[in-house]
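Exercise 3.2. Students should predict the tertiary structure of the chain below and write it as structure tokens, then compare their answer with the key that follows.

Predict this chain's 3D structure.
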Amino acid sequence: MPFKAGLELTELQNMTVPEDDNISNDSNDFTEVENGQINSKFISDRESRRSLTNSHLEKKKCDEYIPGTTSLGMSVFNLSNAIMGSGILGLAFALANTGILLFLLLLVSVTLLSIYSIYLLLVCSKETGCMVYEKLGEQVFGTPGKMIVFGSTSLQNVGAMLSYLFIVKNELPSAIKFLMGKDENFPAWYVDGRILVVIVTFGIILPLCLLKNLGYLGYTSGFSLSCMVFFLIVVIYKKFQIPCYELELNATSSMLSNSSAHEHMCKPKYVIFNSKTVYALPTIAFAFVCHPSVLPIYSELKDRSQKKMQLVSNISFFAMFVMYFMTAIFGYLTFYDNVQSDLLHKYQSKDDILILTVRLAVIVAVILTVPVLFFTVRSSLFELARKTKFDLCRHVVVTFVLLVIINLLVIFIPTMKDIFGVVGVTSANMLIFILPSSLYLKITHQDGSKLTQRIWASLFLALGIMFSLVSIPLVIYDWVQSGGSAEGH
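Answer key:
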């Protein structure tokens, strides 16, 4: 699976290659190039090393050619797995605040732009020989590049962990109440989502995060994808089982007593603009981010080539586009304007075994996925601090502190739309738009034959910057206007 293999690959590729002064001057061999890779052991003397271009020297440090063993089909599954996440739960909410046509336009646009950003990333990887995103940033922009990539990927992973724990906070109380035979208004402290998420974090997730390596946990991503497919099937089924969601008609019977009002409530809208529309694009962007996993999956691809990996990404993004659109449209047509940023939370599990089953499946999947993401963030943090040698005390302290911070954020963040909004306009924007285009422009800045491609990359970069300049102030404005109120909680 991508998480485990990607981590092992990172360890291999972070092995340092001896610098110039450590290479023996006694050999009479000449530089040899095999499969386009520069093999440092054949560099004979200081003069021949000086004759190499700076880019080749950098590539020598980054490259370690390891043949891939993963088939194209399995690579498609792995990348689809990397794309799929909690973002799928917020897409119906995004559709409800944009309308069907505008949402479809945004979804198609983000899908195509994401595929293009993968293309730029693969070109950069081919030019530098780097198969690790942080290494690629360091090769092109030095330490600042490494820091920016680290910050973006870590924020994306932290955002994913927050959204997963938010699902636990939202869904676990309902599941426990159902199993106890209690109704949704049961007030006991042990069914408080905030308390439950702390218990789950330090009772289940913490012990898993304290493991020296993840081992079999890397394979839980397959279970997570299966749960999301199951969730989609249930969403489609429930649309036909629930003809029109009635907005607590008993409480609002005076408003909805006439048939025209009821008909209006259940009528789909095609273009909508309101204060929540601003969250649509960040939510969609959050749902499509998989860029930190692209290079590890690429490195594992059998008989790998840029063209073959581009085919993998095209198939994966198309499959996720179909799955995302179906989830959003059927979720919206079930609840219409009353859909929440966590679609699963709108389904009541009382006397409904199917909803309870999908709820428990998603809860288990996200609980087992959190340690995988946490391991990646912690490893990147230690790598950045150059503390790669295992130290038990440091390992435990950092794990505990990070989990405490994450839990505080989960407890005090009111809704999932805030997570999708913040991560979408920051790290997702950086990973999809700004970083791939910036890396490409830097690498090809002296290549006159790529003028047309550089113009497109420049426009892509400008689009990402404009997205940030527009979206971030609007999200902040909505926070101020709404006063941090939670919708539906």
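Discussion points: The radius of gyration is 24 Å. Residues 1-60, 247-257, 484-489 have pLDDT under 50 and may be disordered.
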